[in-house]
Design brief:
485 residues; mainly alpha; Serine Threonine Protein Phosphatase 5, Tetratricopeptide repeat; 74% helix; DNA-binding; PPR_rpt; PPR_P_subfamily; Pentatricopeptide repeat-containing protein
Length: 485
DNA sequence: ATAGGGTTAG
């Protein structure tokens, strides 16, 4: 029976499924290496030193999956080793993957065990080794552990550099522990490492986020003493901090100062937008528009962020005509397109419960060949799907797809539509949607797949059941991978 | 390294 085979394929795929197709490709290249790794787990780096061949993220991720879950130690040592190779560099994505796979946040000790193993086995350890470890803690957002790593370096006769201090300082700033961050910054000076612009920007951001504006401003003096001149980025951080705490007069003074200073301190679109946004939030639309004029007068073009907060504001006040005029004006500046602005307007209208107008504008965009952005599409499709117009939602999805729309809509929406279509027995659309999902490699998340299986069990539509079963079979294993990491 | 509405995929 068809239904039986679905649930059987579901449960067997939980137990036996083998992560990714790439594993197969990679086994051909490196199966030996992996087997060696697993046999001589004590000598990972020595085994790896015999490895010759291209190292890429696919390969690295394949090995990591092989080591999961019982060989975390080996997996991490492989990951660190890979990060040391000159022809390869882990991307943040890969750090994140390793971090999630081996649950570094829950098991921070794993990495200390690796460091201890290096010591016990007299492995060669360099500054770069510690950098890879630090980056793993960065992904895991573990400030204390990252600091311990920094403290371990001298035991290996190594010294941290400015980027490593910056990484740890950043973690403490994010955590809001500005005292430790400050101690670390001072410590840099003691060991002949000078804080750089990145250090100061992080510190300024950190101080602002905990409301220590005076300390943030004091950085101006500290950095100048060290021969590091403040630039627009640092100024912008401080300006943002002042805005956030509501002192708009002081914010405008600082903006003045930046304009007068000029050069590398000259405000840019981020600086102005930050001020405009705060005025909008406070309901001071007039002041926001003055800042807009001011930036345009200085040849600084508003971008999507600038435009969208003003559009949002006009929309909230019901000043739609002015929103349209504003759009014409900012688009002329060249920093933002009609597509982006109208998309923002669609989003704002919907947020202000002017759904019908949002839909009208959205339709107008499609008919005029303007591509709405991901958020606007997601919002409109969701509106249709949850408002009992599932088929319309699907058709909209299909229409957007046919426009060659590359940026994706919220991936949950495909699942939501699929469930809706199945529930209402729209077999033809459901089958088409599944095919689209397969083509776009959209994964079905576990709560949705349960609903689908339930629906199929009850369905008398044999054609639907046959088609979906056939199609779902091929991506159920992927679902299992996704829910496991 | 600065704003933000959730910005590729790996």
């Amino acid at each position: 029976m068809v239904l039986f085979s679905i649930s059987r394929s579901l449960s067997s795929s939980v137990r036996f499924q083998n992560p990714k197709v790439s594993i197969v490709q990679f086994s051909v290249v490196s199966g030996d290496i992996l087997n060696h790794l697993q046999e001589n787990s004590g000598n990972v780096e020595k085994t790896l030193s015999t490895f010759k061949g291209p190292l890429d993220s696919k390969f690295v991720s394949g090995v990591l999956h092989r080591c999961y879950p019982s060989q975390s130690h080996t997996g991490l040592r492989f990951f660190i080793w890979a990060g040391l190779q000159s022809d390869y560099r882990h991307t943040p994505y890969m750090y994140n993957k390793a971090c999630k796979l081996f649950s570094i946040s829950q098991n921070p000790k794993l990495l200390f065990d690796v460091i201890e193993a290096y010591r016990a086995e007299r492995c060669s350890v360099t500054v770069k080794t510690f950098k890879v470890v630090l980056n793993l803690y960065k992904q895991a957002k573990l400030a204390d552990e990252a600091l311990l790593v920094l403290r371990k370096m001298p035991e290996f006769g190594l010294r941290a550099d400015t980027t490593m201090y910056n990484l740890v300082i950043r973690l403490f700033c994010v955590k809001g522990d500005m005292n430790t961050a400050e101690t670390l910054m001072k410590e840099m000076g003691l060991i002949d490492l000078y804080p750089d612009m990145i250090t100061y920007v992080e510190m300024a951001k950190g101080f602002c986020s905990v409301g220590r504006l005076d300390d943030a401003f004091r950085l101006f003096e500290v950095m100048k003493e060290h021969g590091c001149l403040p630039d627009k980025v640092l100024y912008s951080v401080l300006l943002h901090g002042i805005c956030k705490f509501g002192n708009m007069e002081k914010a405008l003074e600082l903006l003045d100062e930046m304009e007068k200073e000029g050069g590398s301190c000259s405000p840019n679109v981020v600086t102005y937008t930050s001020v405009i946004q705060r005025f909008c939030e406070k309901g001071q639309t007039l002041e926001a528009l003055e800042v807009l004029n001011r930036m345009e007068a200085r040849n600084c073009s508003p971008n999507r962020v600038t435009a969208s907060c003003l559009i949002e504001r006009f929309c909230l006040e019901g000043r739609l005509n002015e929103a349209y005029k504003l759009i014409d004006k900012v688009v002329k500046g060249g920093g933002v397109s009609y597509e982006e602005c109208y998309s923002s307007l669609v989003v704002s209208l919907k947020r202000n419960e002017r759904t019908e107008e949002a839909e009208k504008l959205f339709r107008k965009m499609l008919d005029g060949g303007l591509k709405p952005d991901g958020l606007a599409c997601s919002i409109m499709i969701k509106e249709l799907a949850s408002g009992g117009r599932v088929v319309d939602g699907y058709e909209l999805c299909d229409e957007i797809e046919k426009m060659g729309y590359l940026t994706s809509i919220d991936s949950d929406l495909y699942s939501l539509l699929l469930v809706g279509l199945c529930e209402r027995n729209h077999s033809v659309e459901a089958v088409k949607l599944v095919k689209l999902m397969l083509m776009k490699k959209i994964k079905l998340k576990s709560p949705y797949i349960d609903s689908i299986v339930e629906i199929l069990k009850k369905s008398r539509d044999e054609e639907l059941v046959n088609h979906l079963t056939e199609n779902l079979k091929s991506f159920i294993p992927k679902v299992i991978i996704d829910s496991s990491n």
